[in-house]
Predict the structure.
Amino acid sequence: MGKKLVIGSSGQIGVELTEQLAKDFGANQIIAADIKSVLNVKNSVVEYVTLDILDKEKLFKIIKEHNISEVYLLAAMLSAIAEKNIQLAWDLNIKGLFNILDLAKEKHIEKIFWPSSIAVFGPTSPKLNTPQSTLLDPTTVYGISKMSGERWCEYYFLKFGVDVRSLRYPGILSYKTPPGGGTTDYAIEIFHAAINHGFYDSFIAKEVKLPMVYIEDAIRATTEIMQADRNNLSINSSYNLAAISFNPEEIANEIKLIFPEFKISYSPDFRNNIALSWPSIIDDSFARKDWGWKHDFDLKKIILEMVNGIKNSGFN
Ligand code: AKB
């Protein structure tokens, strides 16, 4: 068994996944890679390397030099920012995936984690209890890249036996890193705004409900699916993953219970149209049945974690 490589280790999932893997397997078993300068991760407990996922040669070198057997490919451009960088988003999200899938096909890597998203769904996918298998008609560059990526993951598994595992993450709430250009970012920004300004102007309309998960649950889901017995996995593309769903008005009302003076206004922009094309509540029964997924954090618990986290240690 070789080491684990986390690509995109300075991002929202990467920072906390790297920490968790270091705890679970030992810091010397984890290599963290990101395109960002090493200065951004000067407190990293694990060895850090600079890597552009599109640089196939350097990627291969790192995998060989560090004896990597497992890759977590988290480098991606999220939904909102991808709309402004169409070609780069496609290249990063898809060519980056191919670089890793091909190394696994050539037996240089044994196992891959690659995140998909609720963005694979589109306006005609069912909005409520969105099934695992249903019509996918994503309308964003990000969603199109994730839908295609899922198809390629399954293809590489069926044709070449590549062990690639994937989750369709909902919006992830966390406080250790700044939001990274997604549509669900409003649900993070609102906490910083409530704590620092007592006011938030939401770019998502008040009634638009989206599926969300707390980072600790999302990380646990990731490590659990990677540890699961492959024979129990009936989905070879990407698993629906759900925890809770809420809209801006509902989360604002919960925040008001802690900060009674908090005020919210609504100025929906292009991100609201993206949110409107996504499901409100998704059905993740395959994940629950196949590998025992169970979320722990409900909305009240998430709110306490976010508020305390931002006040005590998070960025402001
Ligand atoms: C985004 O909003 O783009 C992401 C996602 C749901 O994949 N958080």
